[in-house]
Amino acid sequence: MEEIKIAQLDQQQLERINELEKNIGVTLVAYDSSTMPSQGGAFESNNSTLSNH
Question: Per 3-state DSSP, what percentage of the chain is helix, strand, and coil (rounded to 5)?
Fold first, then answer.
């Protein structure tokens, strides 16, 4: 099983994540896309963002 790492965010990115969490009422987790599986899976990469389908 591949290890998936949590992304290292700068202060501005962290503030944006916190704002989104508050607005939509969920907890968000940012993963380092360089550690994501490259084949198939439930995640889709789009301009360095991830969506779970």
Answer: 30, 20, 50
